[in-house]
Amino acid sequence: MNVNDFQVEKQLQILSEENFCVYKRGDFQKNQIAYIHNSAVVLMIEEGEAEYYINQSKYKVKPGDIVVIGAEDYYRRRITKEN
Questions:
Q1: What would the mean pLDDT of 6-17 be, rounded to a whole number?
Q2: Residue 78 pLDDT more than 70?
Q3: Angle formed at CA 27 by CA 44 and CA 20, multiple of 5 degrees
Q4: Least confident of 20-24, 52-56, 65-69, 75-79
Q5: Which of 10, 17, 41, 70 has its CB surrounded by the most CB atoms within 10 Å?
Q6: Does the pTM of the predicted model rise above 0.70?
Q7: pLDDT tens digits, one per residue of 15-62
Q8: Which of the two residues, 64 and 35, has the higher pLDDT score?
Q9: Cα angle for residues 54, 8, 20 (degrees, 5° grid)
Q10: Distance between alpha carbon 50 and the CA centroid of its chain, in Å?
Q11: CB 27 within 8 A of CB 47
């Protein structure tokens, strides 16, 4: 397991080589993103609100929610409220 600050290149390397990675990221910008990973992703929402589109299903998330994205699931995120 790796615990690291968010670095795009490092995260993509970890997600492609290892079973899982733990990191904390608190400076999301309000831009929309789209990803697909070969490992599962578990997110805990601590602040703000967003919409996650996972395999064409829409989920609205808020603080306290946990999002689980399966390996090789396509997902997009759109932040709707920043703190």
A1: 61
A2: yes
A3: 45
A4: 20-24
A5: 41
A6: no
A7: 566 555 566 666 566 666 777 777 788 888 888 899 999 998 999 999
A8: 64
A9: 65
A10: 11
A11: no
Is residue 19 within 8 Å of residue 43, measured between CB atoms? Answer: no
The CATH number of the domain where 61 resides is what? 2.60.120.10
User: Into how many domains does the chain fold?
Assistant: 1
Residue 30 CB-density burial (10 A; 0-12 exposed, 13-18 middle, 19+ buried)? exposed
Segments forming the whole domain that contains residue 41: 3-81
Q: In the block, which residue shows the tokens 């789209």?
A: 34
Which amino acid appears at position 68 of this protein?
A: V
Q: In the chain, where do the E strands start and end?
A: 3-5, 22-24, 33-35, 41-44, 49-54, 57-61, 66-69, 75-81
Specify whether the CB–CB gap between 6 and 23 falls below 8 A: yes
Cα 23 to Cα 43, 58, 60, 83: the distances in Å are 10, 24, 22, 20
